[in-house]
Amino acid sequence: MANKLKQILVFGSTAIVLYIGVQLIATRSLVSGMPPPIRATALDGTALDVPKPEGRPAVIYFWASWCQICKAMQSSIRSLARDTPLVSVALLSGDETEVREYVKREGFEFPVVLDQDGAIGRDYGIRGVPAVFILGPDGHIRFSTIGYTSELGLRFRLWLAGL
After folding, report:
1. Is 48 contained in some domain?
2. pTM (2 decimals)?
3. DSSP string, 74-92
4. pLDDT score recorded for residue 125
5. Which of 2, 77, 91, 131 has its CA 20 to 30 A from that of 155?
6. Residue-level pLDDT at 49
7. Residue 111, preceding peptide bond in cis (omega within 30° of 0)
8. Which of 113, 119, 72 is CA-nearest to residue 90?
9. CATH at 137
10. Which residue range(s) make up the domain with 143?
């Protein structure tokens, strides 16, 4: 029994170290500190000036309509947006009509900025989606991640960013 527990602990520890290593490599190109400004009009007509510190943590979420991993995260993102300031950027996802249809179909109720040519994504150093930036109450990036992240993982990072 003790040998089995030891194997589980070694396997779990190895998996955590590998995950952290992959994240460090995947996120090395992402910006840190104060994020580049996003001054745009969202698809719903809202004028955005991001980052605009609101005194609490916030999220910038980069996604693409063709990304299946992004699609798997949509329910977590929708849930976060109910109680967290969140702006999303549709990266290389087609023209405005296509993105509007996708947003409607997915039930997005948060601001969506269209990044048709990928310029905003390049400013943020994005090489893959989904990408999430967690901002602290001061507007600085506290955490960034690429790839699937659970709602629990995002909420934990938001909690840490607020400390």
Report:
1. yes
2. 0.84
3. HHHHHHHHTTS-EEEEEES
4. 96
5. 91
6. 87
7. no
8. 113
9. 3.40.30.10
10. 31-161
Classify residue 64: in a domain, yes or no: yes
Q: Is residue 38 part of a domain?
A: yes
Domain membership flag for residue 35: yes
Q: Between the CA of residue 84 and those of 6, 11, 31, 61, what are the distances in Å?
A: 40, 35, 21, 12
Write the DSSP string, 46-82. -EEEES---SS-EEEEEE-TT-HHHHHHHHHHHHHHT
Q: What does the pLDDT read at residue 80? A: 95
C-alpha–C-alpha distance, residues 92 and 48, integer Å: 19
Question: Chain centroid to CA 141: how far?
Answer: 11
Tens of pLDDT, residues 7-65: 776 666 665 554 454 455 555 568 899 999 999 999 999 899 887 878 899 999 999 99
CA–CA dist 109, 103 (Å, integer): 8
CB proximity list for 98: less than 8 A, separation 6 or greater: 65
> Across residues 70-90, what is the average pLDDT?
95
Reduced to 3 states (helix: H, G, I; strand: E, B; else coil), residue 153 is helix
How many domains are contained in the chain?
1
